[in-house]
Amino acid sequence: MSRRSADPAANPAADPHADADPDVAPAPVVGRTEIWQPTEQPPHVHRRHQLLCATRGVLHVMTAVGEWVLPSTRAIWISAGTEHATRVRRPCHTQVLYIDPAACDMPRETYCLVLGVSALMREVVHACAEARWDYPANSPEARLAAVLIDQVRAVPQSPVDLPFPNDARALRVAEILRREPANREPLAALAARAGASARTLERLFRAQAGMSFGAWRQRQRLLLALEQLAYGESVTNVALEVGYESASSFVAAFKAMFGTTPARYFRSA
């Protein structure tokens, strides 16, 4: 069964691209508006860059090196050829654009990045997602596609990724914290559960995830909180569910990472 359904506001019978492959579309930027049902799509690749926007709900994107959390105020860029999987836990309204690499030569090392979505960018994404796939080079659709690419290059990035270590012992700790988001055990106790010393784990997280264990743990908590807040849960409940002692300590950590309070974050688009 497909994980996707047509936008109920649209007429599925009128969609000429329902079964078409966007990787071979004639136009340089093409797209779809979809509703993704709760599921996990296995790892796959596209020959084109992708820009995914969750217009309602939360989308997770996973690669071999990390996980990205995408609330409705953000979009994610996935470079062409990057193997990735996606997961949604509740129905998620999305707009997906497929961009010919020849039209937008983003650096290959970009892989995935999350972007803030301005009101202008949201409208341009919507227009590109609804455009036909065979527009000519000098058409209004082509000019909109050029505006989209300029916007992607200009908008600020957002720190909503969680890089993974690759050592089995460090991954065991990461899995413990995924299963037990309110866990407050010190690193030494977690290390004992994973069969390693605290010093070894600290070294592994710094070397393989690019940050200290404490910074990684805080980011993991805040990204989980981001999803719960996006679904309307209260700040106090979310703070306790992800291991903070109070709402005030949670808000301070959230502001340190995202540069704003939870309420303002979700009004920032």
TrEMBL record:
Domain named HTH araC/xylS-type: residues: 171-268
Start and end residues of each stretch annotated as Disordered: 1-26
Keywords carried by this UniProt record: Activator, DNA-binding, Repressor, Transcription, Transcription regulation
Domain of life: Bacteria
Keyword Secreted appears in the UniProt entry: no
CDD domains reported for this sequence: cupin_NimR-like_N
Name of the protein: AraC family transcriptional regulator
